[in-house]
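Researcher: Next entry in the queue.
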Amino acid sequence: MSSEPRAIEVSLADGADHTVEEWEQATAAVLRKSRRLAEDAPEHEVWKTLETTTLDGITVTPLGTASLTADLPDDGLPGQAPFTRGAAASRELEGWDIRAWFADPDAERTAKDVLTDIENGVNSLWLSVGTGGIPIDALAAILEPVFVDLAAIVLDAPFEPLEAAQALAAVIADKGVDAAPGTSFGVDPIGAAFRGRGVVDFDAAVEVARLALPLGIRAFTVDATAVHDAGASDVQELAYSLAAGAQYLRVLVEAGFSVEEAAGLIDFRYAATDEQFPTIAKFRAARRLWNRVAELSGVTTAAAGQLQHAVTSRPMMAKYDPYVNMLRTTVAAFAAGAGGAAAVTVLPFDEPLGLPEVFSRRIARNTSSLLISESHVATVTDPAGGSYAVEKLTDDLARTAWTLFGEIDATDSLEAALDLLRDAIAETVSDRALEIAKRTRPITGVSEFPNLHETLPERRPYAEPLDVVRYSGEFEALRDDRAATPVFLATMGTVAAHTARATFAANLLASGGVDTVTAGATENVDEVVAAYAEADNLPVVCLTGTDKAYGAWGAELVTALRGAGATYVVVAGKNALDADATAAVGQDALAFLRETREKLA
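Model: Structure for this entry, 601 residues:
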């Protein structure tokens, strides 16, 4: 990064102008105080210190400036190509479509849940139908009280797409009304095959499209959550959606549909995560990218505007401390709405545990209702538009995804394309797992601040659960198989002296399913060893104290504890003493926990 002084000016709301150089000076002072920047480091180093890099290798700047967007293409206006700012000029419902998800095979329960949700704020339904979901023959009864001309119905029937579509078409015909905008048969043979939930049957998909066209509804859903659930990055999710969408266009055109008709039969589903700004940028970039595909395909009408359904991310949700999922899904729903998604599904907080119950369904639907009606998030179309940082991130995502899409589209078969994508996703999963293991990508309630003694809510299991690479999966696997033996925390000194490191060590061990026993306030080696004897001379001990205490009597304590029966000694902090291991910030926590558990066993 250049060391030349910056003369860029940032205009503040009160009219005062400040240069980026002034921002660097103020920021450097804060970073030096927190020891994140050396006293002799040049002030422009604050950029490198504070910038972050996504799993796609995209740099996110700590401060948006006009220079970031000087060379970017024009976003246009909402409802106009390239649709970056929105597929429509405004939101007709003064908010996004609150779409609830239903997958309970118990038709009676589902019928009650549908009615409850419709009466309390939900305005469209996403139904998992067929094998593992709602019985197809129960669809008519479940939708009997629903005004299908007002509430959009979206199907997900990977195993029986044609049969499910025919059943919904019959319901619409029986009611004698036009289906609500946004209604979709949701056929997605590529996504189903990627998940291992069906085969790629384009012939059946085309039949669904022929059924949908005269009804004025969508036939295909490009469900990019299929790759997101497998661990894909934002760029990989975007590139996959373009590749699948382009393939569906080809299939439909080859079957005799015009390119305009084909584009109008496809909608898209993306995951929204608790990474707020990348999620906002992803939805904006997706519209711009699909417009380019449509443009190259010869689409000249509003059908080039991508219809988006956002679903709060399954991988980001955790089984342990599941109530934290409410926070994650709230941020994700906000980001999806601000990013311009036409419909948003907030998955219930207990989704990782099984089929949701009445309370979790209520919280899920109310999340969107509160964001729309009380926080007024949807009042402004494209509220992030014009933000230097968001515009730059949108452009970076779009360009990087377009490059990957080109690589996928250049393969000679669908199987080769999916294999290429799987290999890329595997690398992302590995990179993300390392960040999670080192806790530089913390997961509250799991890798950070775990409650080892919590009682999880009990939920009925899914009949056909999705395979999801949950970010918290490796930590949760350790928690599922809790260690039978605790670790002894050799707390050194007063409570005030040892609390910081004792809390750190206890939380770290708890994240791996390991409980602890503490010595309490101590003044010397004899008091710690006496407490150790009362704890039954556990095989693994962890010293927790200040650096000063380590220097004064740490070595003597290690020797005494080993003499009393300790077979594996850990020191909290980077002072190794004569220990077998250290527990410190930045280390591979999973590797540490697995090693510790082996010693406990």
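Model: The chain has 21 helices and 17 strands.
Researcher: Noted, moving on.
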